[in-house]
Specification:
mainly alpha; about 350 residues; two-stranded antiparallel ribbon
């Protein structure tokens, strides 16, 4: 295989690393922040289940990104991923839980403008709508779960030590589910722009099964995400774990489960097919922001408890970063494509 492919893919791997550094906080930030789970334990569990989710269920959301903008050259995909990664890295340096979905969407739109390709407004509207629905839905789920959990604890009269043990175990299982959902939903952000131009072939592993070319690509991207989790996620974990609002272990569990459920709803092809088979409305398969989901869940509980403990100043900074993210990524991508095409004479679109 041509070595140039892996050179171009390096930006996607950097993007995956950046996503892991940023979004691990959304899986285990509350658990680590409340001292219920050690960081090393959280990193290992998150890495394993991110890879499983990406390979097994990552294809659905990537198709939506392909409809938004079908980047058809490796150089173009390289720059879109790099623009998103640079934007994310900058926000991580500021300890902001950035939306990777917004970064890659902005980069794709930047490529569309440069290549004079139309941006499908219907698809863009569907994606942007989820940026609003995602935190609101996470907040609603969090409030319902929080109320049910508190009532259950009171009903069963759990001793503090037993309650602590159950919550610790619950946080680990919830984190594993959240990591699976993150891999399934957000691998599209990392590797989706490379699907059209990837030369990778499918493989067959004895006793495991057959993996198509997209699954191989997603596996490579998931490894990069896992590396980001292990090496550079502590900064943002502290912001989410303790910065937005001080949380009890029960609240931490509720937040992790809520964000995992939201990501799963927008990533599960099986769930969508099941609902459609009964003529029921289904969630679109769209890469949503785990950062928005976890912040929405934290705010939902905080507002339910009166809103006094919420760090509204930090929330406003996070909201501003979400607005700026797609704009910055689009500008970086557009300007960088100009240099790739005119300085390095690379074909950035067909």
């Amino acid at each position: 295989m041509d070595l140039s492919f892996f050179i171009f893919l390096s930006s996607g791997l950097f993007l995956g690393w950046s996503l892991g550094a940023s979004d691990a906080s959304n899986i285990f930030g509350t658990a680590v922040g409340t001292k219920m789970v050690k960081f090393n334990t959280a990193a290992i569990i998150a890495s394993i289940f991110i890879i499983i989710g990406a390979v097994e269920a990552g294809d659905g959301a990537s198709q939506t990104l392909g409809e938004l903008g079908s980047i058809n050259t490796l150089a173009g995909a390289f720059m879109a991923a790099l623009a998103a990664a640079l934007t994310i890295y900058w926000m991580v340096e500021l300890s902001m839980p950035i939306s990777t979905s917004q970064a890659i969407v902005g980069a794709i739109i930047g490529w569309n403008f440069f290549a004079s390709k139309p941006t499908d407004i219907a698809v863009l509207s569907k994606i942007v709508t989820t940026w609003v629905v995602c935190p609101v839905l996470a907040g609603i789920i969090a409030v319902v779960l929080y109320r049910l959990t508190i009532k259950s604890v009171k009903y069963f009269h759990l001793h503090l030590l037993r309650q602590d043990c159950y919550i610790r175990s619950g946080l680990i299982f919830a984190g594993a589910f959240g990591a699976y959902a993150l891999g399934a939903n957000n691998i599209a952000n990392v590797m989706g722009v490379f699907v059209q131009s990837s030369p990778l072939k499918g493989i067959t592993l004895p006793y495991v099964g057959v993996f198509n070319s997209t699954q191989v690509l997603f596996f490579i991207g998931a490894l990069a995400i896992s590396l980001g989790v292990a090496t550079y996620s502590k900064k943002v974990i502290n912001t989410v774990g303790n910065g937005v609002m001080r949380m009890s272990p029960i609240m931490a569990w509720v937040v992790v489960v809520s964000q995992g459920l939201v990501l799963f709803l927008f990533a599960s092809q099986e769930l969508q097919d099941f609902l459609y088979s009964y003529n029921l409305p289904a969630f679109p398969l769209v890469p949503v922001s785990s950062s928005q989901a976890v912040v929405g869940a934290v705010m939902g509980i905080g507002i339910y408890k009166g809103g006094r403990d919420i760090n509204w100043k930090l929330i406003s900074k996070i909201a501003m970063s979400w607005v700026a993210t797609p704009i910055i990524a689009a500008i970086i991508c557009y300007v960088s494509l100009f240099f790739l095409q005119n300085v390095f004479a690379l074909e950035v679109y067909k």
